[in-house]
Amino acid sequence: MAQQQNPDKIGTSPTLLEVFTELFRAITRPAVTIIFAAVIAQVVIQGIDAPQWFIGLAIPIIGWWFTERTVQHIRTKTPTESEEKKGGTNAQT
Length: 93
Prior knowledge:
single chain; mainly alpha; 65% helix; flat
């Protein structure tokens, strides 16, 4: 996973808190996503009754994570061939 860098902290070592936060996020995101996806799949396929608060919590969280990853990907996207021919770039240096 690519890390977002704060322009004020370029060239400095991450603090213990930042390292712990990234590690915690890297571990919990997949686990929580799998739990949410499994329950949503059971609701759709088997027709079980899941608590409304659970579905109401799952959809915005998965949507937020997807949006965050998409925006991060767009920001770090390498230039396409047409952009290279024109001399433009979207890549950050």
